[in-house]
Amino acid sequence: MTQVLEPKPALDKLKNKKIIFVVGGPGSGKGTQCERIVQQYGFTHLSTGDLLREAVQSKSERGEQLNALMKEGKLVPMEVVLELLRDNMIAKADGSKGFLIDGYPREVPQAKKFEEMIAVCNLVLYVKASDATMTKRLLHRGQTSGRVDDNEETIKNRLKTFHDQTFPVLDLYEKQGKLAEVNSELAPDDVFIEVRGALDKLA
């Protein structure tokens, strides 16, 4: 489970692909923007949460190991998440213009390890909303979906974790001139105008 990732020749497939880290707090609306980027730009959206769930459901050896870790409340090792991302990126590279990496990196060491073992990130898209807006959206979602992690106390903790862990990542990429911030307080269509402005500069 904690084997060291070795660079593979297959990573050559990713050389000319644009790679965008999509960062935003819970309730920021980044999922909506990812869907629109996929539709308009032909990117592939990879969510680390979805990849982990799919691996567990696959009942593969790796899936069973992940399931055991999660049941014990343990964190999935960074190398395993990177392996899932790498394998999916290579598998989908031929039909993709680029990749939206959603939910990763959450911390600076994760960002550095991704670039060391997979590919260099071209852009970090920060879908920014105030804590008040994100809380309001999540509470509304909790009322309609019944999600247990969408209550006020849990939301407060999730937002604190997001800020503590992710702001150093944003700072890292801002210093590299790779950070694009979009205002998620706006209506979704207006947010996407800002998103397009950032992505069109990559062309």
UniProtKB/TrEMBL annotation:
Presence of keyword Aminoacyl-tRNA synthetase: no
Annotated Gene3D superfamilies: P-loop containing nucleotide triphosphate hydrolases
Subcellular location, record wording: Cytoplasm
GO annotations of cellular component type: cytoplasm
Pfam families registered for this protein in UniProt: ADK
Keywords tagged on the record: ATP-binding, Cytoplasm, Kinase, Nucleotide-binding, Transferase
Database matches in SUPFAM superfamilies: P-loop containing nucleoside triphosphate hydrolases
Stored InterPro entries: Adenylat/UMP-CMP_kin, Adenylat_kinase_CS, P-loop_NTPase
PROSITE patterns reported in the protein's UniProt record: ADENYLATE_KINASE
EC number: 2.7.4.3
Molecular-function GO term, any one: AMP kinase activity
Assembly and interaction partners: Monomer.
Described purpose of this protein according to its UniProt entry: Catalyzes the reversible transfer of the terminal phosphate group between ATP and AMP. Plays an important role in cellular energy homeostasis and in adenine nucleotide metabolism.
Homology family: Belongs to the adenylate kinase family.
PANTHER family per UniProt: NUCLEOTIDE KINASE
HAMAP family named among the record's database cross-references: Adenylate_kinase_Adk (MF_00235)
Name of the featured protein: adenylate kinase
Organism encoding this protein: Rotaria socialis
